[in-house]
Amino acid sequence: MRILYIYPFGPFFPVSSGADIIATNHLEYFRKKGFQVDCILFQNPQKTKYLDQFKAQYSFCNSIHLLDFPPIAFKFGELLFASNYLANSEPLKTLLRTPYDILFSNYAFTAPISLAAKNTKLKVLETVDHLWEALAISNPGSTKNPIDEATMKLIEFELYELFEKIIFINNEEMNNSPQNSKCSYAFIPPAWNLPVKDLSLSNSSSIDILFIGSNHRPNIDGLDFFYKNVFLPFIRPMGFKLTVAGKVCDYWPVEDPRVEKIGFYKGPIQSLYDSTKVVVIPILDGSGLSIKTLEAMAFGKAIVTTPKGARGMKLENQPFLTINLKDQPEEFSQAVIDLLHSEDKRKNLGSKALEHFKNEHSFEIYAQRMDNFLGLA
Amino acid sequence: MSDEVDKHKPRKFYIINNGMKDLRGHYFETAVSIAQAAKDLGWHPILCAHSTCETGLTPEWLEFYPVFRTDHWMAGPAKPFETDEIQINLAKYRNSNIENLKFGMATFDDYIASRFFIPPHLISTDVFQNSVLKKTFKRIKQIHKEQGTSAVFKKATKKILKEITPPFIIRIAKKVVSKIKRLWKKNNLTINQTLDMTTENYYSSIFKADLSKILAITNAQQKDYVILPTAHGRELFAINELCNEVPTLPSFGLEFRHALEFPLVPLPDGQEHAYVKHHRYYFEETLKNGLKSNVKLFTDTRELVDDYVKFSGMPFKVLPIPFRQTFLENHRIKLPKENEKLHLIYLGDPREEKGFHWLPYLMDFLADNYLKTGRVKLEIQASVHLKHSEIKCINALKILQAYPKEWITFHGLEGPLSPGDYYELIAKGHINLCPYEKETYRSRSSGTLTEAIAAGMPTIVPDNTWLSSQQPLETGLSFNGLDDFLNKTCQLIDNYSAFFEKAKSAKDEWLRKQDPKNLILEAVKESNSAHRAN
């Protein structure tokens, strides 16, 4: 089985975003199936330096190509333009002459490549996020504008029609997309595919409350809202500390002796989670599925989050606490404080998270869902 | 969304007010009242406003898009043109649909070009492609294809040179020209006053682009209807042009509500106000191509119809004046009891043409016999802006604020009134004062008078105006000049109950006449008759 795999944001090693994690799922799946993969990556200046490590990590691939294109901003039209530019570039034209069994692409703006792949039997799109929602909240300085969102939505849904099978990581987003009889759709939530060693649920945790986030705007806004409306008035006076990790630290201008900003964490992420009592995910915006939540669940942590932090997840077993932060900041703080005060409650909630993770987001389950949808069982 | 799917959905009724920048005030009230009526008549209403308009405060049932970057009046774009990434060219948009892409009848270049603005630095990646020679050749080819050989020679020198000249040279040239102009003015030399429509046409093209976008994303069909309750000539020009390019557009109704006279701002002989000048140009330009059959023109008074028909040579019809009648139904005005004060209200924007600066005269005139005795009180809408309002109105407010608080209450000092507060103010009133400027309101309508009559309130209006022609018999008085206004106000107060009874009985007829549903039925009837004629 020959696969042409397309990922538009550079080498996904080291993993630094939700989209990266989803992409690792794909390649891991192809590796386990023993498929021959030609991997196309778009240029990403921040990630290009990792190309060799990426190649070493995914040496099973037939070939790995990093394609160059004019410098672009993070806008829908420009991303689409870049894809079209690459679809007409010589390296890709040459590759597309190969008769692939599957073209597997991430993000709807890669549609020009799908259209150009005339010799391919099956074209699969992993939507990752609803771009019309994700781009509107990701661009620095952008404001959510209904007209831009509506226009991008229309265009994104049009582009879906250039694929035959479409994967969503969020059930609600799949249901809200127009269902075209010529395409088939599936909700396949991503798996956490990074190594998890023996989990520590001990009481020796040195971090009271942990938030990990990139410089993605919803992380900055959500953290700021949590700090001002929950931590500062309710939790800080009780003597607890907040630890913030990830690039969000560089973009969040708070200086507080009771807040530790550790920036991009270079050590194994598990050690950070192992030293943590409660994980908060106070985000108020987002599209797709919250990979942060998934990650904390994989490490069996007690999580307090918002409906946006819980998006795309099944909530029947209540694997974490979901509270509307904007409307109920006091309830949110009470939930965090209760967990900080009770090791039993933390263990109980953490075990439920881990259990739910294993049942819904383990790699085996993921591979099974992919097999069924792609007809490869 | 395919046309097939849309066939079974209710017809869409677009209300476009590109001057609407917040969700309150007259524009908003008009828009929501029309939308509500459209909904009641089985249409699906869609409201489109200025791009800076706040969101989240419209009724849930109303689809709302703040899309327009130019407003209907004189203001420029809200943000630079270049920053708007998505720009839909409606004609090309429809030709580059996904089916056409799949079957090779359109390319992805076409697809992107008809939906997005792509910065030039991305398009010019190749040295040869970017070369002056190549660009010139490409442009000549394009002009030749679109407009024929003669156009190539006509436009080549001017346009191509402009396009291939580096931006920094254009900037330097502009600076030099403006410097010369300044020197010219300084030396008291006259400048040839020709009509330069460059900016106006630029605004018109932005309006056209924004309109294309909204019609595309909402999948507008021929069966739908678009109304502009306050339109400008540059929008007519853009719409007519768009209808020429795309044959299957909805029907359009454009309502011109501004008078063609500006008596308060006289100009030297031979000069015209910008509004008149621009409209002459746009009406003439529209007539050159012919007014499309799916574009209809309206005003809201018989007097304005006469003026516009004479001025433009195009057909105009009258539409009713819409407002949210349900708000008034909840506020029934009652006759004040003996120990209650009679409330004289002033509604609307505090403007000179609306006689706001006459109110201190009225206070002085009423002081001894009516205010000191506690017989009457003034309730006034006083949203005076300390920077932007007219100086006479700013001064008038200062004077009014010096009177005892028991004599006068101010509403909206902090900013425009919310719809709820506005209708509450109407409900407080017993007499509506319209000390409006006679010449200005000869042909223009007045929303506040419309609402006051609908509320069953006696009114004072300038004579020989649209207001006096609409004032139902014996429901109020009309005046001629300031002294008469003061005397007539006293006369109305003294005989209030008789006027009140008449106003109360005239109310229902007025509500029927100005029902927003009638506006929709009238407007749509016009477009239906045009379709039949075709």
Looking at this protein, list some descriptive labels:
heterodimer, A: 377 residues, alpha/beta, 42% helix, B: 534 residues, 6-stranded parallel β-sheet, 48% helix
Structure, described:
The complex is a heterodimer of chains A (377) and B (534). Chain A is an alpha/beta fold. Chain A is built from 15 helices and 13 strands. In chain A, the strands form 2 sheets. Chain A has a 7-stranded parallel beta sheet with strand order 3-2-1-4-5-6-7. In chain A, helix 9 crosses helix 13, helix 13 packs across helix 14 and helix 14 packs parallel to helix 15. Chain A is globular, with a radius of gyration of 21 Å. In chain A, 47% of the residues are buried. Chain B is α/β, with parallel strands linked by helices and 534 residues long. Chain B has 23 helices and 13 strands. In chain B, the strands form 2 sheets. In chain B, strands 3-2-1-4-5-6-7 form a 7-stranded parallel beta sheet, with helices on both faces. Chain B has a 6-stranded parallel beta sheet with strand order 10-9-8-11-12-13, with helices on both faces. In chain B, strand 6, helix 14 and strand 7 form a beta-alpha-beta unit. In chain B, helix 11 crosses helix 12. About 3% of the residues of chain B have low confidence. Classes of the chains: A alpha/beta (377), B alpha/beta (534). The interface between A and B is medium-sized, with 31 and 30 residues.
